[in-house]
Amino acid sequence: MVCQSWLSVMGMFSPLEADIMRILWERKSATVREVWWELKAQGKRLAYTTVMTVMVRLYEKGILNRVKEGKGYRYFPIQPRETVLQRFVNTVVDRLVAVFGEPAISYLAEVIRRHQRR
């Protein structure tokens, strides 16, 4: 299992985006208010409008979808967590190979061999 904070550390999401995505992947869908309350319960002191702005931006980036619900929206992830993580891993490995070439490939092959022996 990949620690959610790695998604922000490695530049895929900001720390707040990673927290929001974790909540949405766990719940499958949520309103801004539901996410805000959950973040508040976790000790994060954020304005409701801050959470709303980040969720709208995630929607605009094509990471979330939304459907009208009452006066607001219910948001849900477009892709499952596993798909996003796989895309993230693919990007990291592609960058390593592009920058370091053969040494990166050799090391990855060694890691695979060690993993297969377990």
Q: How does this structure look, described?
A:
The chain has helices spanning 4-9, 15-27, 32-41, 48-60, 81-100, 102-117; strands spanning 30-31, 64-69, 72-77. It has 118 residues and is mainly alpha-helical. It has two domains: 4-78, Winged helix-like DNA-binding domain superfamily/Winged helix DNA-binding domain (Arc Repressor Mutant, subunit A), CATH 1.10.10.10; 82-117. A three-stranded antiparallel sheet has the order 1-3-2. Helix 3 (32-41) packs across helix 4. The chain is elongated. The two termini are 18 Å apart. The mean pLDDT is 90.
Total domains: 2
The CATH top-level class label of the largest domain: Mainly Alpha
Terminal Cα separation, in Å? 18 Å
Instruction: Give the proportion of residues in helices.
Output: 55-70%
